Here is the input.
Amino acid sequence: MPYRYSSRWKTPAEVNSEMMGDCKGKAVALYEKLQANGARDARLIIGKLRARDRRTHAWVEWETGQGTFLLDPTLNWTATRAERQDKSTYIPLYAYESGHKYRALNPALMIPQDSWSHQVASRE
Here is the structure.
């Protein structure tokens, strides 16, 4: 499905009828399809593809008996095991699962206190 950015969140029906979407639209459509086909323990993730990225990215994580899989309908054609991912990529900030919203605390995005203090001190 081709990529096309949208400033607003499109519904899965809109993404499917237009046969294109951005990461948010594709991830929401995939999440809905998984739920409709009986998949449990799947969650929609909003986060950063890489820690240095300025924009957010959206994907789906799915916990199964064989492990947790990362499903990125925008960038990856196949599911990958989340355990094998580099810790500096696919950094979750928020998650949605079965009507519940969560905020992730991710150490990969934190600035060490001594580094922050040094940056503040050097600006004075």
In short: Confidence is low (pLDDT under 50) at residues 113-124. The first helix runs from residue 12 to 18. The chain is about 25% helix and 30% strand.
